[in-house]
Amino acid sequence: MEIFRGVPRALAAACRALMTGGPAGTCARESLAWALGIPERVRVAGRAGVSSPHMTDLAGTDVPPLVEQACAAARRIGFPVTRDDPGHGRGSASLPGTGRFLAVLAAGCAGGSIAELGTGAGIGSAWIATAMPADCTLVTAEIDPVRAAAAAEVLGSDSRVRVLTGDWSLLLPPLGPYDLIFCDSGVRDAATFSGLVDLLKPGGRIVNDDITPFLALPADSPFRQADLKRDLFAGEPRLVWTEVVLPDLANSLLVGTRK
Length: 259
Ligand SMILES: C[S@@+](CC[C@H](N)C(=O)[O-])C[C@H]1O[C@@H](n2cnc3c(N)ncnc32)[C@H](O)[C@@H]1O
What we know:
Elements: H1 9-20, H2 28-35, H3 40-48, H4 56-59, H5 65-77, H6 96-107, E1 113-117, H7 123-131, E2 137-142, H8 145-155, E3 161-165, H9 168-171, E4 178-183, H10 190-198, E5 200-211, H11 228-234, E6 239-245, E7 252-258
Parallel strand pairs: 1-2, 1-4, 2-3, 4-5
Antiparallel strand pairs: 5-7, 6-7
Bound molecules: S-adenosylmethionine.
């Protein structure tokens, strides 16, 4: 195929298998991982659901206690913790890979201020709160009062964290600007997204998850032609942004820094 000119043969073969389906498609992801030089331990972990000590996101280990508590609260109120749990269509908890990524960014927010749009049961907040410096604050808004109450119960003893009940678009802008915004409640238009970038300090970051890496999309997926979230990031001239594929190789997130 013309589009693979100059691409290493193994990588081209893996991409072709993913794009066309068919028998080769079954092993395409592993081939792709190999061709991209993804270490053996990642491929083994992904294939077998097993882990090396460093593949904690795949194995579900090394989760901070506060995150465990938020997961327990989510299960208590029937908020989906995994994509397989019932009710997933109404929003579900952030994946461990997303949580760990948020934690990395939050840890750099010394003296800063973080906002989350859509608390759920507090799982993303728990990742952030566990990692952020002592002088950093987090405010998170959740429109569903049952979810907000469950999250507040988990996070309420931390004076740096505020769980607000209501529409983020009313509650969070007056409390900005922010060093980090986790946009996790379905922002779907450029004007709203631009309003969020307004709320970022220069150098501040915005994260949006629940993306499927292009090469992991089925051949007939409409997201191969257009993807609203990627379009929002790409269409915002104040952001330097990229897509980060999570260790499961099946999910990714978008992260942008305000210039
Ligand atoms: C994907 S879930 C959030 C998951 C959570 N951030 C986590 O890390 O586990 C999206 C949440 O956004 C909430 N939501 C939807 N629209 C909202 C709005 N306008 N303001 C606040 N929360 C909203 C939903 O009720 C849902 O709980």
